[in-house]
Amino acid sequence: MLDRSQWWTPPELRKRVLDTWDIGLDAAACHESALVDQWLGPTSPVEEWRDARTVIWADLVQPGQTVYCNPPYFPSSLLGQFLERCVDTAVRGIGVTGLIPASPCTGWWIRWVAEGGAEVDFLPGRLAYDGPFSSGGVAPFGAALVHWPAQT
Questions:
Q1: Mind listing the pLDDT tens digit for each residue in 84-96?
Q2: Residues 10-23: what's their mean pLDDT?
Q3: Backbone phi, then psi, for 67, in 5-degree steps?
Q4: CA Rg, the chain, in Å?
Q5: Domains in the chain, please, with CATH?
Q6: Distance separating alpha carbons of residues 6 and 9, to the nearest angstrom
Q7: Beta strand 66-69 pairing with 23-26
Q8: Which pLDDT tens digit goes with each residue over 25-81?
Q9: What is d(CA 84, CA 127) in angstroms, rounded to the nearest whole number?
Q10: Tell me, what's the pLDDT at 86?
Q11: Rounded to whole angstroms, how far apart are CA atoms 83 and 103?
């Protein structure tokens, strides 16, 4: 079975994110997939950073920087935990940009994206994710680049 939790951000989207925001932390990555040198994930060399759900992301970046998060999409309860952390980080004054499934009729989308004050850019078509766990084809769902602006 395909491990959907480890689909890496496609190269063209990586470039767009890095050209648009000053990314100070990749909050859901591995060494090979991280957009920047500072990242959280199960293989992090910093033991306390291996579970991104237990770290206060806002404490790890400089003011004005943005956190990037391409969280695990499945199960939806895990995705919801990451999205909750995105909203929490924005409330703490640090913006967050995330790549997530475009699913505006779901409870997690309504709670953490719509009610979370996010700006949404629905991406056209279906993405071809990168990395060793991608299928080489396009995803079976649409995606959105979502930005939670820093709340001041």
A1: 999 999 999 999 9
A2: 96
A3: -95, 140
A4: 14
A5: 4-148 (3.40.50.150)
A6: 9
A7: parallel
A8: 999 998 889 999 999 999 898 899 999 999 999 999 999 999 999 999 989 999 999
A9: 24
A10: 98
A11: 13
Q: Which residues contact 120 (CB under 8 A, 6 or more apart)?
A: 113, 144, 145, 146
pTM over 0.85: yes
Q: How far apart are CA 2 and CA 16, in angstroms?
A: 27
What is the token pair recorded at 73?
A: 């999409």
DSSP string, the chain: ---GGGPBPPHHHHHHHHHHS-EEEESS--TTT-SSSSB-STT-SSGGGS-GGGS-GGGGS-TT-EEEE----SSHHHHHHHHHHHHHHHHTT-EEEEEEE--TTSHHHIIIIITTT-EEEEPSS----BSTTS-SS--SS-EEEEEEPPP-
